[in-house]
């Protein structure tokens, strides 16, 4: 489906972290198909090479750079290379993330730190490296990938919920701090999306309800799961001039799953804990 003007992103440089797979790849393909020069960065060279081949095969002007977003020095180097090569960074998409199911009472500090370092520190490092260039060039756009309403609580994902809530705080704060430089900062919250990583993160190791994506689908008013292209289309809008007066928002792309659950559904909702029997009440 081609919803936007052809050439919408001509001559724009778009950097996407974690752009070789899943939702990030769909965003790279989408921005590239509307004319952007796309730079995808992540840790695994072979994944990047495969993604670059696929994108170039589709006619997208794609480059790749190996980078672990947890490493501030690596991030700075990569951003310098992008600016040397393309003269500007018009859009930064902070999409790289880590996640796995882990009950809070047994989650190790290292597990917690691993996810927070990728999602929250990674977002900080990338934005921090790019923004001086955006200020010099008179503006730009940062899009952080969060999740659908991280404040509502995600049992089994305390690390990701904390990290993504933190990213929301960065989004609103940066929107205020950098708005007068012409820099817009928004975030986008995909609903459950059965990417390979999403499937693993949501289901591996969970003893309670194995096909959790099926449950998520039943809880979604629009009756299906999100696709990577759903999020990519919303990203195209938010980073375009059509959204030139939008900053500091988190746009949920979730088919309505984050809407409050009607009280009649509570009994059958496996994501809501059963009421406890009051102590000593026979
Ligand atoms: C709610 C928001 C919705 C978001 C959805 C998404 O993001 S979907 C997109 C999701 N996309 C992705 O996730 C893609 C990227 N994912 C990855 O790169 C890896 O899965 C990674 C997250 C572990 C990072 O690797 P790394 O090499 O940096 O880490 P490491 O191997 O050194 O381990 C560090 C600690 O974590 C522990 N631990 C690790 N795995 C598991 C597990 N399955 N189970 C339990 N624990 C696990 C491990 O035991 C260790 O703790 P310990 O034992 O020392 O106390
Ligand atoms: N799928 C879902 O259900 C949901 C996903 N999201 C969010 O959407 C985004 C994309 O998720 P999805 O496409 O499913 O998952 P993927 O795992 O496919 O995407 C994550 C990407 O991040 C990269 N990455 C991970 N760690 C690092 C790191 N330290 N430095 C650089 N890159 C890194 C990975 O590449 P590499 O291994 O090469 O480094 C990978 O390409 C994430 O922000 C996720 O939190 C939000 C809600 C739901």
From TrEMBL:
Keyword NAD: no
Top EC category: oxidoreductase
Region (Disordered): 262-282
Ketoreductase domain residues: 12-191
Any single biological process term in GO: fatty acid biosynthetic process
Role noted for this protein: Participates in chain elongation of fatty acids. Catalyzes the reduction of trans-2-enoyl-CoAs of varying chain lengths from 6:1 to 16:1, having maximum activity with 10:1 CoA. Has no 2,4-dienoyl-CoA reductase activity.
Protein name: Peroxisomal trans-2-enoyl-CoA reductase
Organism whose genome encodes this protein: Streptomyces filipinensis
Taxonomy of the source species: Bacteria, Bacillati, Actinomycetota, Actinomycetes, Kitasatosporales
